[in-house]
Amino acid sequence: MSLSGRIFAANYDRFMSKAERGGLAAQRAALLRGASGEVIEIGGGTGASLRGFGQGITSLTVTEPEVPMVRRLEQRARGQAPAARVLRAPAEDLPFDDAQFDVAVSTLVLCAVDDQPRALRELRRVLRPGGRLLFIEHVRSDDPGLSRWQDRLNWLNRIVAHCNCNRPTLDTIRASGFTITGLERSELPGAPPFVRPLVIGTATTAGPAQPGAAAAATRSA
Q1: Helix 116-126 × helix 213-220 angle, to 10°
Q2: Which residue in 209, 204, 182 sits closest to 130, CA to CA?
Q3: CA atoms of 1 and 39, how far apart (whole Å)
Q4: How far is CA 220 from CA 99, 120, 208, 210, in A?
Q5: Which range marks the domain in which residue 99 is found?
Q6: What angle do CA 168, 170, 174 make, to 5 degrees?
């Protein structure tokens, strides 16, 4: 457990408070109202999403790879979602069977995973045919000038925010077997200009997953 990881986890809620008050909390709540059935959230962090899940959920599983975050997530889950199952697991290697969930949730996670394509293939694998992905992610800008600044300053963002600000996340979602069915472009409230481009959307699995074969492809990547 690194010192930087403990410090980041301890200060994460304070670090994100301006964005949450500026509209991120409302955007997340609106998105999560569409979740139902058996739901998995990856990269649950300190549990900011827990209050947003509604009555249509039959089970909630939340994964988080970092030990300091897991501890805070478990504590918050006990008070806000006691029926939720919290597991320590990276998004790139989810410990679940194929086609196990109806809905997957990712909020400000795909910018931080070590291997974004692999994480999305794992989500595709664990979703049932016709399953949905709900996402809020800050992404690479479509503006060439701003995207160049994102490339130049990504090293700083990795140090300060522990994530990447210049990933073409929508392209990777599509390439991983999802069809984007709803998309809103927005800005991350209170963030520096090179981190602001934000997408909020839904995607569905583009066809039946191939049990076993998808898992093997994911793990051999």
Answers
A1: 160
A2: 204
A3: 28
A4: 19, 14, 21, 15
A5: 3-220
A6: 120
Closest CA to 40 of 62, 7, 65: 62
| Residues 120-150 pLDDT 10s | 999 999 999 999 999 999 999 999 999 999 9
- 152: domain CATH number is 3.40.50.150
- Under DSSP, the state recorded for 21 is I
Give the strand pairing for 197-205 and 178-187: antiparallel
Question: How much helix, strand and coil, in percent to the nearest 5, is found in the chain?
Answer: 45, 25, 35
Using CA atoms, how far residue 32 sits from 56, 57, 137, in Å, is 11, 10, 14
What are the start-end ranges of the H helices in 102-143? Answer: 116-126
Q: What is the pLDDT of residues 202-215, one digit of tens each?
A: 999 965 444 433 33
Using one digit for the tens of pLDDT, what is the confidence trace for 177-190? 999 999 999 999 99
Q: How many domains does the chain have?
A: 1
In the DSSP assignment, the letter for residue 189 is T
